[in-house]
Specification:
15 helices; alpha/beta; Aspartate Aminotransferase, domain 2; about 15% strand; about 45% helix; seven-stranded mixed β-sheet
């Protein structure tokens, strides 16, 4: 007689845990239920980088028109993404001055998280070592866990401007790595970063023979300076793959469209993996993305003044409420140290964000969800109009004064 539980989950999935966004989602659901019943503050969700700003109208118009074409309701395999990939190649030429082959160096993705989470399965064997920044975006670690790889962490320090110190690892430790995952501009710290950092990473990757994956969905949302990119490094074809997204610069997060540009062997490996995991988004959505790139290429630039105003006004409002803020150089987020009053109570970042939600209705993302180096921080997304953000700061200030 079998004694094992037929419904037990795999150790691989068990190791993933619940994920910070899933935990936050449960807290938000519970709070919404209580607020509807008791009339307490309505929920103000500042936990996700899901903007209230709208995509360019031309993108939506083209999608709507294409939805009535029969092909839009069909499965979309790789071959049908050719117009999208050609548009991406033209965008790369305009944006970075780099010629890429749309047939072998570009791949459509169902969101950049899909690409970063699947890449380790395509390039790593169980037990292989991979380097992540700490703090990191959750899908970066999740992809390694699914691939049964061993993560090694490169800790970013606030007093060093969150600059990666590659000398933290010895040459032998570098030689043991098979993959390195970076992302600048950086989520969650909202640090734009420098091209020299990415160039140095590419040089290390070539020297030590590892894959360099650069996650770059915020490339068009640097508020101070120019965002770095792996495609600007002359070494990108020797070591790397870079992930881009329509979610941030074109406000199309819910449509789940992104792409990778990289060395042909890496694109081929990821394409092979995707071939047994999923198909692609409808060609109607792809047509809208093409329109966004070609006819609303300046859309990200139009967003920057809005995010800059939100950043500055929210930072001032939180400072007045007793929660000082270091101004970030990237749009969309504030990376906030947990206030002293909360630290004095011994609260972790998760406990602080839970108590903040209960006391104010404002939901932030606890920093521990981004790795051990995120403990003691909270991430606030600037995804509401300035007045709503300032109102949230007032709620927070009143609550903090009572701690």
């Amino acid at each position: 007689m079998p004694t094992s539980d037929p419904f037990s989950i795999s150790e691989r999935v068990r190791g993933l845990g619940s994920g910070v966004f899933a935990r936050n989602d449960q807290r938000k659901l519970a709070y919404r239920s209580r607020s509807a019943a008791s009339g307490i503050h309505p929920l103000l969700d500042l936990s996700l980088g899901s903007t209230d700003l709208q995509p360019p109208a031309i993108a939506l118009e083209v999608m709507r028109e294409q939805l009535f074409e029969p092909a839009s309701a069909a499965y979309c395999l790789h071959g049908a993404t050719a117009p999208f990939r050609e548009a991406v190649a033209a965008w790369a030429e305009r944006r970075f001055g780099v010629a890429v082959d749309p047939q072998s160096e570009v791949l459509f993705l169902v969101g950049s998280q899909e690409g970063t989470a699947h890449l380790p399965l395509a390039v790593l064997n169980p037990g292989d070592q991979a380097l992540l920044l700490d703090p990191f975006y959750p899908s970066h670690l999740g992809g390694l866990q699914l691939a049964s790889a061993q993560p090694r962490f490169l800790r970013l320090q606030a007093d060093q401007g969150f600059c990666p110190d590659f000398d933290q690892l010895s040459p032998s430790q570098w030689d043991a790595l098979k993959l390195m995952v970076l992302g600048f501009p950086h989520n969650p710290t909202a640090t734009t970063g420098q091209q020299a950092w990415v160039d140095a990473a590419a040089e290390r990757a070539v020297r030590h023979g590892l894959v360099f994956a650069h996650d770059n969905p915020y490339v068009d949302l640097a508020l101070d300076g120019e965002a770095p990119a792996l495609l600007r490094s002359p070494l990108w074809r020797q070591c790397g793959i870079e992930f881009f997204s329509f979610s941030k610069g074109w406000c199309l997060g819910g449509y789940r469209m992104a792409f990778a540009i990289g060395a042909e062997p890496l694109i081929t490996a990821l394409r092979q993996l995707k071939g047994v995991v999923d198909f692609n988004q409808s060609v109607a959505l792809q047509a809208g993305a093409i329109a966004a790139m070609e006819q609303a290429g300046d859309w990200p630039e139009r967003l920057k003044p809005i995010y800059r105003e939100r950043r500055d006004r929210m930072a001032a409002a939180l400072g007045a409420a007793g929660w000082p803020v270091d101004l970030p150089s990237m749009a969309l987020y504030l990376w906030l140290q947990v206030p002293p009053a909360a630290r004095a109570r011994g609260w972790s970042s998760e406990q602080f964000c839970g108590q903040l939600l209960e006391g104010t209705g404002v939901c932030l993302t606890p920093g521990n969800g981004f790795g051990s180096a995120g403990e003691g921080y909270a991430r606030l997304a600037l995804v509401q109009p300035s007045q709503a953000l300032e109102d949230a700061a007032v709620r927070i200030g009143q609550w903090l004064s009572g701690l």
